[in-house]
């Protein structure tokens, strides 16, 4: 939702420039935008200056956000990180992979991480430049293929697999993942021979409280219809204020531990069959569940809690 507000500000700036006829600013930009349109699908345009803004250090330390490695990765290969859960903010994914203040470079030397987000956000003038500067790129098939096509390896595609739909189930204490029908990442991993790595971000769902919206309720029906129309969800959430803890839109200060699991080797198959895709998808879900079960006690999750796959 922070993303939506920032995009609105950027669109507002363009509208103001047009209304007040600052053509010498918006005409050159729009012309350049026309020729630069496909950049989010060609690796983006990251900026170490933007990724090193001090605000991101405060962002990481606020919760705080931690990155935990459980297995060494080979920098001569490319990988697909499946990130779970989506949560409301996806704070763990951004803090760990889109700033220079996480331990990513120390834990995974020789790798470049690309966080894939909805193509919709790259249609917003100005905002797309800010988004790409963090290392974010489109989640389109063409974009993921571009990242995984690096012959010498060393690239990591980070895909938040539950997507917008999963954010509507991002309630504290819930572990519902929308993954059973998400198989595109498996197919693209097979076609490129990229190993799959399950990633679970403990604490991601604890940052906000949502208005109760069980499946079948009028609120959930409206949210799902809007999500299908717009491409992103509108969870009704709240947390704390800046100077008080009772109500506001600032996330709660809850620690986030993003645990990177064991890689699943993938043999390159240019034209995988539905059976091969299904088999690898099942293996991925099993490894994701093992990762969750192995680490949940460390982060205060009761023994009886388990993942729910939808």
Description:
This protein has 310 residues and is of the alpha/beta class. It folds into 2 domains: 33 residues, no CATH class; 253 residues, no CATH class. 39% of the residues lie in helices and 15% in strands. It contains 12 helices and 11 strands. The strands form 3 sheets. It has a 7-stranded mixed beta sheet, sandwiched between helices. A two-stranded parallel ribbon has the order 6-11. Helix 8 runs parallel beside helix 10. The model has no long low-confidence stretch (mean pLDDT 92).
Helix content: 25-40%
Count of runs of 4 or more consecutive helical residues: 12
Overall pLDDT level:
92
Number of strands: 11
Largest sheet: 7 strands, mixed
Q: Count the domains.
A: 2
Tertiary shape: globular
Strand order of the largest sheet: 1-10-7-2-5-3-4
Provide the low-confidence segments as ranges.
none
Fraction in beta strands: 15-25%
> What quaternary form is this?
single chain
Descriptive key words:
two-stranded parallel ribbon; about 300 residues; alpha/beta; 11 strands; 12 helices
Topology:
Layout (H helix, E strand, L loop, with lengths): L1 H18 L3 H14 L11 H4 L2 H9 L2 E5 L9 E6 L6 H7 L6 H4 L4 E6 L9 H7 L2 E3 L2 H8 L6 E6 L2 H5 L8 E2 L6 H9 L2 E8 L6 E2 L7 H13 L6 E2 L17 E5 L13 H22 L12 E2 L1
Parallel strand pairs: 1-10, 2-5, 2-7, 3-4, 3-5, 6-11
Antiparallel strand pairs: 7-10, 8-9
């Amino acid at each position: 939702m922070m993303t939506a507000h920032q995009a609105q500000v950027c669109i507002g700036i363009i509208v103001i420039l047009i209304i007040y006829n600052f053509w010498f600013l918006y005409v050159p930009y729009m012309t350049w935008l026309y020729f630069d349109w496909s950049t989010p699908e060609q690796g983006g345009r990251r900026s170490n200056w933007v990724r090193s803004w001090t605000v991101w250090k405060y962002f990481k330390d606020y919760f705080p956000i931690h990155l935990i490695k459980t297995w060494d990765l080979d920098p001569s290969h490319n990988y697909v990180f499946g990130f779970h859960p989506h949560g409301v903010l996806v704070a763990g994914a951004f803090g760990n992979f889109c700033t220079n203040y996480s331990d990513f470079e120390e834990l995974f030397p020789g790798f470049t991480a690309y966080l894939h987000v909805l193509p919709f956000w790259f249609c917003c003038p100005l905002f797309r430049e800010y988004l790409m500067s963090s290392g974010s790129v489109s989640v389109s098939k063409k974009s993921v293929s571009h990242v995984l096509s690096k012959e010498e390896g060393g690239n990591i595609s980070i895909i938040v697999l539950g997507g917008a739909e999963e954010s509507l189930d991002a309630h504290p204490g819930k572990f519902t993942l929308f993954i059973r029908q998400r198989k595109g990442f498996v197919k693209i991993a097979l076609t490129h021979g990229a190993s799959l790595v399950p990633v679970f971000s403990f604490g991601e769902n604890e940052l906000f409280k949502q208005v109760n919206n069980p499946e079948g309720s009028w609120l959930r029906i409206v949210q799902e219809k809007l999500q299908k129309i717009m491409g992103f969800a509108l969870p009704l959430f709240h947390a704390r204020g800046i100077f008080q803890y009772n109500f506001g839109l600032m996330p709660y200060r809850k620690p986030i531990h993003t645990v990177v699991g064991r890689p699943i080797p993938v043999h390159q198959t240019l034209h995988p069959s539905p059976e091969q895709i299904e088999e690898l998808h099942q293996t991925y879900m099993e490894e994701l569940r093992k990762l969750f079960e192995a680490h949940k006690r460390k982060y205060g999750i009761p023994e009886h809690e388990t993942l729910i796959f939808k």
